[in-house]
Amino acid sequence: MAQSTSFLTVVFLLAFAPICCFSLNARGGCLYPQFYAHSCPKAQEIVKSVVAKAYAKDPRMAASLLRLHFHDCFVQGCDGSLLLDSSGTIVSEKRSVPNRNSARGFEVVDEIKSALEKECPATVSCADILALAARDSTVITGGPNWEVLLGRRDSRSASLSGSNNNIPAPNSTFQTLLTKFKRQGLDIVDLVALSGSHTIGDSRCTSFRQRLYNQSGNGQPDFTLDQSFAAQLRPRCPRSGGDQNLFFLDYATPFKFDNAYYKNLLAARGLLNSDEILSTRSESSRQLVEKFAENNELFFEQFAKSMIKMGNISPLMGARGEIRKRCRKINS
Fold first, then answer.
1. Is the four-CA dihedral 5, 187, 73, 23 of positive or negative sign?
2. Is 71 noted as a catalytic residue in this protein?
3. What is the pLDDT of residue 15?
4. pTM of the prediction?
5. How far apart are the C-alpha atoms of 191 and 277, rounded to whole Å?
6. How far apart are CA 156 and CA 134, in angstroms?
């Protein structure tokens, strides 16, 4: 326990250093865990409570909230842009291919925001709500804990094109995956560690159907997928129809945050193409998969570090952006 605590302290300091620049510029700012210590001391308690209630009602919600933070940060940075509905000049990112018919949990975010507005009006940003909810969702399913850097502000814009172009698709090649992560300042270690979030949650048939029937356009399945596993998937994911049928991303321990995801990859039982290629298309990534499969603590440590790093992608701070009163619309 002492070693784990010491590690996370080091992780926090390393991730904290580059983002916190003390500046006389009024438009500057700083992310740090105690940002709301005086302005809204119950903020983290409120987020944790609502997440716990939502999870008790629907265990899938943990993965959904974690995914919202990821999909937010990869578009314009961690600024809550994903939460905006279409209105006026804003075209919602919810309409993008990666989010349409799959992004969920917006009602939970609304509930958290409503509770926070009652406790401390116009104080806690929607972007910070996503970061906290992602951490709490990880912890409640048995995953690692970490100190969330806070102080992000909310954007007044969204980017449908950014959502379509920046978020990796489930059929991505390894190089495409790595390129999109590097574009956000993340590296191959972050790619493999953050992909481990697929230890919880589900995927739709339409996201992996090609692996079962026509992986390369030649009418043949993906033979890097264990064929007995493929046979189990086909009845509920036929050649046509059943697009929205859900399947566990980690069939071994679908509701537990652990390293079984990596063990599945080594057994050729990763559900998505973007999962399995981590063990089949790059020696460097495969070595990381093997390390995480062997050592759950190592995976937890790196996942926490990579989540902090991802949460630092281009945040709005200081006088930039705003603190939305409602997460779905900009302030008037």
1. positive
2. yes
3. 45
4. 0.91
5. 12
6. 22
